Amino acid sequence: MDDQNLMENILLLEKGVCDLYMHGSIESSTDNVHQAFKTALNESLCIQDTIYDEMTAKGWYSTQQVEQTKIDNVRQKYSMQ
Question: What are the b/e assignments for 6-40, b being 16+ CB within 10 Å?
Fold first, then answer.
């Protein structure tokens, strides 16, 4: 497994962890448990951001610029609903 695949797998795992912590926070029944999940979620989001930044710097996570007209069309479509 090369470095790019390894980083992609780590990023996917971290996203899964964030999802679990988010649901744990939403479903927690006490303030202490809620705060523990919320803290863990925030830490995991920071880790996810770091992984994303590293992958972007290496050209392993590319994004596309969207034309402003397309953004405006979607915004208009959903503002009418």
Answer: ebbeebeebeebbeebbebbeeeeeeeeeeebbeb
* The overall pTM is greater than 0.85: no
Terminal alpha carbon distance of the chain? 47
Average pLDDT value over all residues in the chain = 95
The CA distance from 60 to 30, in Å, is 41
Helix (H) or strand (E) holding 55: helix 31-57
Q: What is the pLDDT of residue 68?
A: 95
| Tokens standing for residue 23 | 């649901």
Helix, strand, coil percentages for the chain (3-state, nearest 5): 80, 0, 20
